[in-house]
Design a protein that fits this description.
Largest sheet: 7 strands, mixed
Number of strands: 7
Order of helices and strands: HEHEHEEHEHHHEHHHE
Distance between the termini: 29 Å
Strand content: 15-25%
Radius of gyration: 18 Å
Oligomer: single chain
Number of helices: 10
Structural class: alpha/beta
Shape: globular
Strand order of the largest sheet: 3-2-1-4-5-7-6
Length: 267
């Protein structure tokens, strides 16, 4: 990702991998890989790869996977978790990809486009590195009102730390308009651009433990860690309450709503 509003430092990348990837990013990665129709022998770029879950899952199916991100902590975890797989990871700015023209059959980007300052430039770079006849598969979150995961955090963080601390979470839902998404892909030169609203039902069997992990893997994690234990416990409870009926007192089962784009490069 290229927007520094959402950059995890220190061991927060490991926390992101431990707590957030299994509940949020692995289910989405599996969905996007299926939509891309990847087959053994295909080449994939996992753009804004974070800890590399898309690349790792694809590589398990015989895909030659490459991950790119600007966050070195995330890349370190991705490399560690990909031992034995045909997956490599590189420092890569989406606006200036360090790859040759026509290198990949597919580019997948999970929850990254909304953070790119120059979306048109980044998508033009994606088009450049995709082989003729290849495709881009992107997903970005829809609005806060459709996503209790982000809404619960925004409400709780605003109450405890002030609205100015909610920007990074709001940015996750900062590019929700499907027409805007279609327009920027078409503007970059992609053809046959299809945008679909997709809702995955996500689940954390231990909702309380998930929220503890969530609090340690956000851009305000340092501030949360510095809170007195009683205040931190109140914040934890406020986030859980923010899920409303999606929390049953034990498990969290909540919808995660995104726009998914499939866009082709002409042969």
């Amino acid at each position: 990702m290229t927007n520094t509003e959402w950059q995890l430092s220190g061991n927060m990348a490991e926390r992101y991998e431990e707590y957030l990837v299994p509940v949020i990013f692995a289910p989405w990665a599996s969905d996007l890989i299926v939509r891309a129709g990847l087959a053994s022998g295909d080449s994939l770029l996992d753009l804004a790869c974070g800890t590399g879950i898309v690349a790792r899952l694809a590589a398990q199916s015989g895909v030659t996977a490459t991950g790119g991100d600007i966050n070195l902590g995330m890349l370190a975890v991705a490399k560690e978790r990909s031992t034995g797989l045909d997956a490599t990871f590189h420092s890569a700015d989406a606006q200036r990809l360090p790859f040759e023209d026509e290198s990949f059959d597919v580019v997948i980007c999970q929850q990254g486009l909304q953070f790119f300052p120059d979306k048109l430039g980044a998508l033009s770079e994606c088009l450049r590195v995709i082989k003729p006849g290849g495709q881009a598969v992107f997903c970005t979150a829809r609005g806060l009102e459709e996503n209790p995961l982000m809404q619960a955090q925004v409400t709780a963080f605003g109450r405890h730390f002030g609205e100015e601390t909610t920007g990074a979470i709001r940015a996750v839902c900062g590019f929700p308009d499907p027409d805007e998404m279609r327009s920027v892909f078409e503007g970059a030169g992609f053809g046959q651009v299809a945008v679909e609203k997709v809702v995955l039902d996500l689940e954390a069997e231990d909702g309380s433990a998930f929220v503890n992990g969530l609090m340690m893997a956000t851009p305000v994690a340092d501030r949360i860690a510095a809170m007195p234990p009683a205040d931190r416990a109140t914040l934890h409870d406020d986030i859980l309450k923010g899920f409303g009926t999606w929390y049953d007192g034990s498990a969290l089962r909540f919808p995660h709503s995104a726009n998914v784009v499939l866009a082709l490069r002409s042969a």
